[in-house]
Specification:
The protein is globular and about 60 Å long. The chain has a 5-stranded mixed beta sheet. Helix 1 packs across helix 5, helix 9 runs parallel beside helix 10 and helix 10 runs parallel beside helix 12. By secondary structure, it is α/β, with parallel strands linked by helices.
């Protein structure tokens, strides 16, 4: 289920990756997508369980959907995503929730579904899962992070309404890496870094070959006109990025958008991105006040880096956006302005 309380047109790649992981092993998947209805709809009752991806903001709407499913089918409800990952005890204690999945879920959900199919009972021995059975909560630890992202099947975009691909750009989002090496205090990454400590590299990158395979498959299937690479920091791995830029203009030649970080770009890199076809970079600045930005938010970013990133982008003809936050703890009205 995709709750989408904010009404974003972007496709949730987490849900799409889970669907492809299950389908690649012969399971049937369907999608309840509230983007276009904005009210809970009863999912197809023929399915064996309802799996919901939820942020904290979407949690109350997720529970409404879970309540309808429970009332009409009596079948299990699983919740995964940011909400149970950060607040597992609160999520599993809700009477509507039978199991939660913490962290990255492709392997965990597949194992869970396979065992559920074999036995007809919710398995209590699957890593990443907390499961309620006979008035007891079975809490399993996290498994190691998947090191090689290239072995994952591409996200399953077929379960989504085509408006997700056609309305906004038209185009699609693509994720070329997972994790982030930085530990900004307002972001989930610093929490996940601690959660996964000792369980493999947290920041992982797909190969350029693998990225281009996905781009080709998307172009063949959908009439996309631009691509949005939604990595937390697309600009952090310069070696991979230079190879990407060299090949992109020759093999794809389509406008693309990225998320960048001001102190991970150089003038040379920005120029290469522009030549490759980059038309937009979203930079997280968060606050113009150095105390708030660096001491409170742990951004580790000086003013020169910020000014240069925007200046170089403008000179190269790339549109920019500055992502900012207001009302940060300790921030005064004067600091905001």
């Amino acid at each position: 289920g995709y709750i989408n309380t904010t009404g974003s047109f972007d496709m949730p790649l987490g849900v799409a990756y889970l669907s492809s992981a299950l389908k690649s092993h012969g399971f049937e998947t369907g999608l309840v997508d509230l983007t276009w209805t904005h009210k809970p709809e009863i999912p197809d009752k023929s399915y064996d369980l309802l799996a919901l991806s939820s942020t904290t903001l979407e949690y109350q709407d997720a529970l409404k959907l879970a309540e309808l499913w429970k009332r009409d089918t009596g079948k299990p409800v699983i919740i995964g995503g940011c909400k149970p990952t950060v607040e597992p005890e609160e999520t599993i204690s809700n009477p509507l929730v039978d199991a939660i999945c913490i962290g990255e879920a492709e392997d965990a959900l597949l194992e869970f579904v396979e065992k559920y199919e074999q036995t007809g009972a919710l398995p209590t021995d699957v890593k990443n899962f907390w499961v309620k059975r006979e008035n007891k909560i079975h809490r399993k630890p996290l498994r190691r992070l998947k090191g090689d992202l290239d072995i994952l099947p591409f996200p399953d975009r077929t379960i989504f309404d085509r408006r997700h691909l056609e309305l906004k750009y038209p185009g699609t989002t693509i994720l070329t890496s997972r994790g982030c090496p930085f530990s900004c205090s307002m972001c989930i990454n610093h929490y996940l870094q601690k959660l996964y400590k000792g369980l493999g590299n947290y920041t992982r990158f797909r190969s350029v070959d693998n990225i281009f395979e996905e781009i080709q498959s998307v172009r063949e299937e959908y009439k996309v006109q631009r691509l949005f690479f939604i990595d937390d920091t697309f600009t952090v791995n310069h070696v991979r990025l230079e190879e990407f830029c060299q090949r992109y203009r020759k093999e794809v030649d389509m406008p693309f958008l990225i998320m960048g970080r001001c102190n991970t770009v150089t003038r040379d890199l920005i120029e290469k991105l522009a030549k490759a076809g980059c038309v937009y970079i979203g930079f997280g600045v968060e606050s113009g006040n150095p105390h708030i930005r660096n001491d409170v938010l742990n951004r580790g970013m000086d003013e020169t880096a910020i000014v240069n990133a925007f200046k170089w982008s403008r000179e190269a003809g790339i549109r920019t956006a500055s992502y900012n936050m207001l009302g940060i703890p300790g921030e005064t009205r004067g600091m905001m302005f």
